[in-house]
Specification:
Layout (H helix, E strand, L loop, with lengths): L3 E8 L1 H12 L3 H19 L22 E7 L9 E5 L9 H12 L3 E5 L6
Parallel strand pairs: 1-4
Antiparallel strand pairs: 1-2, 2-3
Helix pairs in contact: 1-2
């Protein structure tokens, strides 16, 4: 099994604004992060049952139970078959001290070969 390195980012509203600025400046990780979040929000609007907090399994939608943040995993060196994913984070989980660890472990279930590389880029 080949190990893939992923950049893992928690994007809350202030970070989202920074990501928008970075995306406009051409930063590919910011552009991909925004695209993943937009895809998640679009899926949530079409079928809210698809959107649950990966940590506590709280069901979210785009109206009454809106995600407070998103966890985004982006492959650092993408190749054929690499996955990039985003997941919603609910109001009750967003302030957890162990949020990054818990969300990464939940996302790792989707991509077992992932290893964590801390984000140091423009949208941190």
């Amino acid at each position: 099994m080949t190990i893939e390195n992923y950049e893992f980012i928690i994007i809350d509203p202030p970070t989202y604004l920074k990501a928008q600025q970075a995306a406009k400046q051409g930063f590919k990780d910011a552009q991909l992060s925004l695209a993943l979040i937009e895809r998640t929000i679009s899926a949530m609007a079409k079928n809210p049952i698809e959107c649950v907090c990966l940590d506590c399994k709280t069901l979210m939608d785009d109206k009454s139970r809106v995600p407070r943040a998103f966890a985004v995993c982006i492959p650092m060196f993408p190749k054929a078959g690499s996955e990039a994913v985003s997941a919603a984070i609910c109001e009750s989980c967003v302030d957890r001290l162990d949020l990054k660890d818990r969300m990464f472990e939940a996302l790792r279930k989707l991509c077992p070969s992932a290893t964590l590389v801390e984000a140091t880029g423009a949208i941190q």
